[in-house]
Amino acid sequence: MSVAFRRDSDEEHLEPKFERPIAPGPNLVTPRGLEMIGAEVARLEAAIANAPAEDIEALRRDLRYWHTRATTAELAPRPEEGEAGIGSRVTFQQGATTRTVEIVGGDEADPASGRVGFQAPLARALMGAMEGEAVASGGATLQVLAVE
């Protein structure tokens, strides 16, 4: 058999594992986001204690990410009453469609459940808006109906 078709192990052909990317800019969070980060750190620490050897490095990589997020987390200031900001629930209308989103920190974002990270274009368009205002977002006009 030719040496070209032999290999001693699969280890030498694995892709390198990179650190999880961290979004640039401040790590603004809501109180819920701060709790979520703490819970994720605790979950990963417990998982590492009970993990098989082959899973530990991936768990440690995730733990490094969450430790960094916990260290850099800044509680976002509360927006003024009636003004959209981080931690606000905003109901808006675009054409015939009415939608409600909550503006949250980047790690809390889950668009499917209506949580939009403050760095997202939609959140940036809504932040600072007051109830009754119209704002532009991606070529569309959004009418802000309510800010909680």
TrEMBL record:
Q: Where is the signal peptide?
A: none
Task: Tell me a Gene Ontology molecular-function term this record carries.
Answer: DNA binding
Q: Where is the composition biased (Basic and acidic residues)?
A: 1-20
- Residues covered by the Transcription elongation factor GreA/GreB C-terminal domain: 81-136
Could you give a single Gene Ontology term from the biological process aspect?
Answer: regulation of DNA-templated transcription elongation
Pfam families listed in its UniProt record: GreA_GreB
Q: Residues annotated as region Disordered?
A: 1-29
Organism's domain of life? Bacteria
The name this protein goes by in its record = Transcription elongation GreA/GreB family factor
Naturally occurring in which organism (per UniProt): Sphingomonas aerophila
